[in-house]
């Protein structure tokens, strides 16, 4: 092989390698690349068993099959919690009949003051589809850890 042919093959190889690299970058940036082989489990969440505002037990299995929003707060929160719950209530209202397809869960982080009766009274100001849950300190700490709070 003479030097001219070698040079031509080298330039052509570099061009093709650059073209393949450019195409791969475009696929990655646009999200049109190959889908992952396995669907990884969610990095947030986990099993829980708590008590709702009516004193009934509720677990992650009760919510299975429907997407659910989880918000952590407490009833004596002066600004952020009521504002967020009002926003969530508005979203639930706007969903109309489709609101039955999703759940919104308010998890208290103040089990000392937030008894089921206090939680039920607090919830009466918001959308009735909201579920407010509490439990003992250990159960709430486990949920907070699972949901990375």
Ends apart, CA distance between termini? 66 Å
The mean pLDDT is 85
Structure class? alpha/beta
Inertia-based shape: elongated
Radius of gyration using CA atoms only: 26 Å
Q: Could you tell me the strand content as a percent range?
A: 15-25%
Order of helices and strands: HEEEHEHEH
Helix content: 40-55%
For the largest beta-sheet, the strand count, sense and barrel status come to:
5 strands, mixed
Count, helices: 4
Q: Total strand count, please?
A: 5
Oligomerization: single chain
Strand order of the largest sheet: 2-1-5-4-3
> Which stretches are poorly predicted, pLDDT < 50 over at least 5 residues?
none
What do these coordinates show?
The chain has a five-stranded mixed β-sheet, with helices on both faces. 42% of the residues lie in helices and 16% in strands. It has 149 residues and is α/β, with parallel strands linked by helices.
